[in-house]
Amino acid sequence: MTSQPEVEIGYFPPPRDIGGCPFDPPPEVMRRQREEPVSRMRIWDGQEAWVITRYSDGRAVLSDDKRFSADPVHSGFPEKNVAYKTTLGKDRTIRAIDNPEHDRQKRMMIQDFTVKRVAQIRSKVEDLVDRLLEELLAGEQPADLVSRLAVTIPTMVICELLGVPYGDREFFGRRAKALLAAPTAERAAAAEADLLDYFERLIDLKTDSPANDLISRMVHQQVRPGHFARADLVRLSRLLLVAGHDTTAGMISLSVLLLLTRPEALAEVRDSDDPAFIANAVDEMFRYLGTTHAGRRRVAIAEVAIGDKVIRPNEGVIVLNNVMDRDETVFENPNELDFHRPNTRANVAFGYGIHQCPGQLLARMELQVVHAKLWKRVPTLALAVPMSDLTFVEDGSNFEVETLPVTW
Ligand code: HEM
To answer: From the record, what ranges are coiled-coil (predicted)?
Structure first.
């Protein structure tokens, strides 16, 4: 690690232009995409990492899992924050291991993320969204759409997927948040201990009384025959809970806010009964909003040339998938929101390569159901406060808005 002063290389993440367009990536990383697409920045723990901003360079890194590792055991790995370093970063789950073990574990769980399984869950999400919108309309104004809609949907989906009792949602919701963003290692560790203990007990329950859920299937198909350790299932369950929760809740709120600020785009979604159009609009919102803005974290385990730079072993790499999705060599007028964009599915909001998100069909489905229903059922929905009163979470793993007060 070199010891240049911080001003010279810049701190990651740099600030967004919240007063301008809060949905755009920080101006500094957009400048780097134009002028120095592979460059170094300093992260929270003082370490330096390479920041990759162009689409082709980013895909080159993410598809090269022989020379770039996702495993934080390698020195130089650029963790996102102290909470990750203390908890998820120490796990041996698919998120943080390399091949061949990564693919072996991912194959075990893939049947729970198929088109067929997502279709089964879809009808439950549709019923839930109908009910939540009725409750919203019957309740007081203004109401916070984050707690009244955005958080509830992924919570129910995760419960359904894993077979977690919905009644326990407050318990795990609070702890899942602490795992991603607790300000101290102690608080992250306490939340982790609670969750691990919770899943231990749930696995006992599923061992005795299996149901149609991922944990039951993993217990009976993988753990009992000896293909997968019970302790690993505890950690995988915890990963899925965390990975599927905040990401999707944050994306629901932010996409609703986006449309509230873009009346023409909102009208297109409200007036459409075409599921293919809604699906494309949702994909375009994933591309445009790039909520997983902390980047994909890797560390080089061999010397690799990316662009005009040479990355050496044990140097950390942050692949900015949100900035890659604003690359004009791939997306025409990338800074415009265009629901008719023909290639918006080429976005990398769900990552790329072996670690690409297994939950993407689920997440897309949840967003599609929300946008197909919300604007028709509540056509007068409006922000209850000026944009400048909203608080955005800029330095977390996901870019999100804290609360979303609305009227109708
Ligand atoms: C808005 C919704 C979501 C977004 C934007 C999102 C984004 C991502 C991204 C970018 C990655 C790649 C990480 C990397 O390359 O280092 C990822 C991985 C992952 N996601 Fe998601 N995700 C979402 C929802 C979900 C859901 C609903 C689940 C599960 C229920 C899920 C489970 C996972 C898991 C387990 C991984 C690790 C996969 C691996 O390393 O092989 N995600 N996600």
So the answer is: none
